[in-house]
Each structure stands twice: as structure tokens, then as C-alpha cells.
Amino acid sequence: MPVVPVGVNSGLFWGRRSLLLWPGTARARFLPAIPPGLPADVFRTRLIEAIEGETNRLILSAYESGLDRPVPGSLRERLEALRRGDVPGPAPTTRD
Fold first, then answer.
1. Most buried residue among 36, 37, 48, 88 by CB atoms closer than 10 A?
2. Residue 57: inside a domain, yes or no?
3. Which among 10, 16, 8, 12 is positioned nearest to 79, based on CA atoms?
4. Residue 94 falls within a domain, yes or no?
5. Which domain holds residue 49?
6. Total number of domains in the chain
7. How many angstroms separate the CA atoms of 4 and 51, rounded?
8. Is 90 within the bounds of a domain?
9. Which residue from 75, 68, 76, 34 is spatially nearest to 51, judged by alpha carbons?
10. pLDDT digits (tens, 9 = 90+) for 22-54
11. Which contacts (CB < 8 Å, 24+ apart) does range 74-80 have?
């Protein structure tokens, strides 16, 4: 079965393990489907690259449009790196 990756910027407005919601417009973008039958490592790489790449674009777009929330130093550094074209690698994941 094909898998449709989705990039989102919702983390800018509703942080992980947080009850606090910041004003703004969360956006999601559905990306081209990844076909079935790929080797697991190829599938995983395509999935991560698609989601991380689109999420970075959505986050940078929201940042450049102006955020109505404080931007902590670590997030500001990541956003400025994205603005310069320095794309950070994907966040570490747990593999079974």
C-alpha cells in the first residue's frame, strides 16, 4: 500500500508535551505517495527526507511571516540556519 507523507508546522504553535497553544496558522502539506515494495531502508530514507524537508519549508515560511510567540534561542538558531540554507539532519529516531 502506498504511503502518503505529510509535512506540518504545528509544532510552532503547540509544542510537544505542552498544554500551551500559541496563536498562528498550522499548515499541513500532503506529499507525493511513496510506492509500496521498496526495501525498508530506502522507504525509511524517502519518508524521512520528504517529511523533514517539507516540514522545514513550512516552519521557515511561518517564521518569515512573523510568529506571535516567543522564539527560544535554540529554535531561533535552527530557523536562522534554515534561512541560510543550512538544513539540519533529521531528528534521531528509534528503530526496532
1. 48
2. yes
3. 12
4. no
5. 6-15+24-84
6. 1
7. 10
8. no
9. 34
10. 999 999 999 999 999 999 999 999 999 999 999
11. none
